Amino acid sequence: MLNEGRLIITPPTDTLFYHTRPWQKGNFMQAGHMAYDRAITVFSPDGRLFQVEYAREAVKRGTTTVGVKFKDGVVLIVDKRLSSKLIEPGSIEKIFQIDGHIGCATSGLVADARALVDRARVECQVNSFNYSEDLAVESLVKKLCDFKQSYTQYGGVRPFGTAMLIGGIDSSGPHLYETDPSGAMMAYKAGGIGAGRNEVMEIFEKEYKENMTQNQGINLGLKGLSAANENNLKADVIEIAIVNTTKGFHTLDSKSVGEAVKKIK
Fold first, then answer.
1. I need a labelling partner for 192 at 20 to 30 A (CA). Which of 14, 46, 96, 209 fits?
2. Coil, strand or helix: which one is 206?
3. CB-CB contact of 204 with 224 (8 Å)
4. CATH topology of domain 56-264
């Protein structure tokens, strides 16, 4: 409409076709949130990367995974949590051997974890070929975390939706590291990732002791896993891997796993 020669635009009054927009209501937070989680390269005004936080949520929905460092090595334990009784438990892979002295257990998107494991294996082989020695556990973890961090910094990619517990042994002793989708790393004496992390960490903080034996480490790991699963452990869906000074990386057979679970029950 014209008012003294000026054009004034008035919104239509028919509410069937016209709805008040969020910014017209003063609801700035909702509009802002929807804008800042569209791309990985955009920070929100309070300094958050929403896509990274969403990737962490994918990890929290994953199966419970625990790791415990003992006197001569590290134990990694995973609950495979079958979604159907028709699934063959052996076909689900959540624990991987990276090198003879390093293994990892994952939670979150398994396909993403496989891609990271393949890269980790190449890093170990390249170091072995170039220097004729095993790659230090901390060096491998830093290389993986640098790679994961790059996927939070450039457009057109998404973060890896997986967290990893990496356990290994080198010249400086046994090591247990946790990595998350942001590329952050942290060394732990005992740790957990996945759906039951809070319950696991509560048990570990109460009962972890320095210089435990291998059997004590396995028992503590299973006890934490049991707490996260409401004391309902099933031996056929539990996988246990050990990295120690005598055998390096190896997994326990089904009979040994069953005996260990019986002790906890």
1. 46
2. helix
3. yes
4. Glutamine Phosphoribosylpyrophosphate, subunit 1, domain 1 (3.60.20)
